[in-house]
Amino acid sequence: MAGRGGKSGKRKAAPRWRRLDARHLAPFAVLLLAADHLEPSDPANPPWSDEQVAQLLHIAATAPEDGLLRPDTTALENAIRRDRPGAIAREANGLALGLARQHLLGAAPASERVEWYIVDTDKTEGLPQAIAAALAENRLPALFDSLRPSHPDYRALRAALGNERDPARQAALVRTMDRWRWLPNDLGDDFIMANAAGFEVKLWRRGEQVKRWAAISGKSSTPTPSLMAEATAVNFNPWWEVPASIAKESGMRAGGRYVWSGKHFRQPPGPSNALGRVKVIMPNSHNIYLHDTPSRGLFGAEQRAFSHGCLRVEDALGFAHTLLDGTMSRAEIDKLFEPPKPAPGGAALATSSAPPQPKSTVVHLPVRIPVYVTYMTVTVRSDGSLAYHRDIYGRDARLASLVPGLSRPQLALQ
Question: Going by DSSP bridges, is the β-strand pair 227-236/361-374 parallel, antiparallel, or unpaired?
């Protein structure tokens, strides 16, 4: 008998499911196990050969040779044990990128880079592409070699670190090597490297040190900052534009040795001028300069932190002559300091109580020269030996992350 709607009252039989055994599941298990091998290529994580992975693990293990902490490679090693190419590529690329950034820019965080205002022009945006290219061309070790500072002093420090056993000196080397990484890798063909901690100024031309001059750095209360500028000219017989802080500290008044300009005090050229006979013009926001000094006896001290922040240079006229590189002879420079010849009617001048004021002269350098004012507690002497300097401003002691476990700041003397 038909049901409502004319449809048969018979019920359809329930579907019968086939029972699957292990033989049916085996192909799916193989696919699941191989899924990591079959995943699509990821441009951000190019594949690594076994040899390249071994090279990366060696670079990580030898990071302390560059004063860097050995990174954690556990995740990569686990991926290798499980034979997961996709995971190996991800972990290897992450490890390589982190190591490359440290080799290029340094390991210390910005909070520990006290009074360091040098802008590192090295960029990390292209590192993933550089790593991918190095893998494609099978030159991973060469890539990491190129990321290290290329200056010969860095290579000397690196070699010394491998042989040093004293913990304090090891710490000083590690900190100094990281500061080299804070500098641009390309310092220029010619450049001036001043070191506040080592009380010295060096001129480099075409990769060779031309000469070294002793210097006086800032006092602990007015420390010399680390900065980068460009030397553009030399000012013989300079006026000193007195900073307001110095004028206030010394209770300066107009008259006698100082002139009030309407905005600030100025000291005219002469034997007692605080800048001495010459100043290197190197515009910068910190008003730090390399200049002469009338107090030349201070160069006899071993620890020469006496200035308000600027660097006073010993034999400043010789320094200026070297920078001018043939633009002026030394005889022409010396002539700038000869007393002015009496003008017609000089009898009145002779009776004047004030000595004639030397003429201030600006001579432009033939080529602008980069200036790097740094703070390095280990330096390389011209004979290749190392000089260790006191941490006069306590900046090494702030670099705690580079040498965890060291209980005291580096205070080694040369």
Answer: antiparallel
140 and 178 in a single domain? The answer is no
Q: Are 397 and 195 in contact (CB under 8 A)?
A: no
Dist CA 393 CA 115 (whole Å): 10
CB 412 within 8 A of CB 177: no
Four-point Cα dihedral 35, 41, 46, 51, nearest 10: 50
- Whether the CB-CB separation of 371 and 231 falls below 8 Å is answered with yes
Of 251, 178, 246, nearest to 218 by C-alpha is 246
Phi, psi of 64 (to 5 degrees): -60, -20
- Quote the distance between the C-alpha of residue 221 and its chain's center: 23
> In this structure, is residue 5 part of a structural domain?
no
Q: Which two tokens stand for residue 409?
A: 């700041």
The CATH number assigned to the domain holding 182 equals 2.40.440.10
Per-residue tokens: 151: 């200056």
Cβ neighbors of 210 (< 8 A, separation 6 or more) are 202, 203, 204, 322
Collapsing DSSP to helix, strand or coil, 304 comes out as: coil
> Among 113, 147, 181, which residue terminates a domain?
147
122-126, 294-298, 347-351: which has the minimum mean pLDDT?
A: 347-351
The three-state secondary structure class of 134 is helix
Judged against a pLDDT cut of 80, whether residue 241 lies above it is answered with yes
Distances 355 to 108, 265, 267 between C-alpha atoms, Å: 54, 20, 15
Please, what sign has the CA dihedral across residues 48, 52, 57, 60? negative
Residue 268 belongs to what domain range?
152-339+358-402
Tell me: the pLDDT tens digits for 187-211?
999 999 999 999 999 999 999 999 9
Examine residue 21 and state whether it is found in any structural domain, yes or no. no
Measured in degrees and rounded to the nearest 5, phi and psi for residue 119 equal -85, 120
pLDDT at 90 over 90: yes
pLDDT in tens, 265-299: 888 898 889 999 999 999 999 999 999 999 999 99
Statement: residue 22 has pLDDT above 60 = no
